[in-house]
Specification:
Elements lengths: L4 E2 L9 E15 L6 E15 L3 E5 L6 H9 L6 E6 L2 E3 L6 E5 L10 H5 L1 H5 L4 H14 L15 H14 L4 E5 L7 H18 L2 E5 L3 H7 L2 E6 L4 E7 L13 H15 L15 H8 L3
Bound molecules: adenosine-5'-triphosphate.
């Protein structure tokens, strides 16, 4: 068992992989003027369960607390109150059982593609020969064969994002936490990466929590979509995506349109706008969709 997970906080997990209970997250903000401190409640009463092997997507207006929640699951931040469990064990810090893919790539610029992908394996002290075999497997899985010796500045945005995914997968985490991983790439590359991610997920059976602004992206990828509201952030509804897999060509189906519309309405009906919410005359759903270039 990892040093970051407290043995005394065990509880029966069943096929629940991640359980978040009554999460509240408060930030202390410095006031303009007198410099006094005040509290800002970013997340309140958030409950969410993610099943083993599930692909769960979170959507919500800007500033509703999606990244804050993902950071807490990653163990990079702590809830002000409430608890998050993985396999029934309390999360108290980051660990190699959870791989993180953030927007903006965050690759090591001084490392080649291969060396970036091998990073987690080096941390795990995997011997060099095995490291090489594993990194090659994941580089090929994300379609980057023949780019092993390139540096990040020699790659396109989509290729960098693939390296980030290969790096997260290579050390075999049970859970992948993805925060708007495809936000910075063009629409066509985004669709290709979505399809590749589904292919990898179907092969590896990882549990995935994926944060996005894109309703289409959420419906295309998810088993379920958790819709968040802001001020303070909480889960408004979790929508089952009962679409068949594989989902190639599903975007043009009537069922896809119905589910998309349902999520759109859930966001539309949300009276509370996030801090970076819609501009005048634009609904939350419109703001989310346009920002994701659907
Ligand atoms: N370190 C911090 N200090 C103070 N407030 C913070 C801090 N980090 C986040 N917040 C606030 O908490 C709220 C939630 O932020 P968070 O980044 O989790 O939202 P989000 O849903 O991921 O937004 P976006 O979709 O724009 O990325 C926002 O109102 C934000 O201003």
């Amino acid at each position: 068992m990892s040093g970051n997970i407290q043995a005394q906080s065990q509880e029966s997990a069943g096929d629940d992989k991640i359980v978040a209970r009554n999460i509240r997250r408060v930030y202390t903000i410095k006031q303009k003027g007198d410099g006094g401190l005040s509290e800002f409640e970013a997340i309140k009463q958030l409950d969410l369960t993610v099943k083993q092997g599930e692909f769960l997507v979170i959507v919500g207006p800007s500033g509703c607390g999606k990244s804050t929640f993902l950071d807490m699951v990653a163990g990079l931040a702590k809830p002000s109150s409430g608890e998050i469990f993985i396999d029934g064990r309390l999360i108290t810090g980051p660990d190699l059982d959870r791989g993180i893919v953030l927007q903006g790539y965050a690759l090591f610029p001084w490392r080649t593609v291969r060396k970036n992908v091998e990073f987690g394996l080096e941390v795990k002290k995997v011997p060099p020969k095995e490291r090489r075999e594993i990194s090659q497997k994941y580089i090929e899985l994300v379609g980057l064969k023949n780019f092993e010796e390139r540096y990040p500045h020699e790659l396109s945005g989509g290729m960098k994002q693939r390296v980030a995914i290969a790096r997260a997968l290579a050390y075999d985490p049970e859970v992948l936490l993805m925060d708007e991983p495809f936000a910075a790439v063009d629409a066509q590359t985004r669709e290709t990466l979505q399809e590749e991610l589904l292919r990898i997920w179907e092969k590896t059976k990882k549990t995935i929590i994926f944060v996005t602004h894109g309703i289409d992206e959420a419906v295309f990828l998810g088993d379920r979509v958790a819709v968040m509201t802001a001020n303070p952030g909480t889960i408004k509804e979790v929508v089952d995506i009962n679409l068949p897999r594989p989902r190639d060509g599903i975007r043009s189906s009537a069922e896809f349109g119905w589910i998309r519309h349902k999520i759109w309405q859930l966001l539309q009906n949300d009276e509370s706008a996030g801090a970076g919410g819609p501009v005048a005359g634009q609904s939350i759903a419109e703001a989310i969709s346009s920002s994701a270039a659907l």
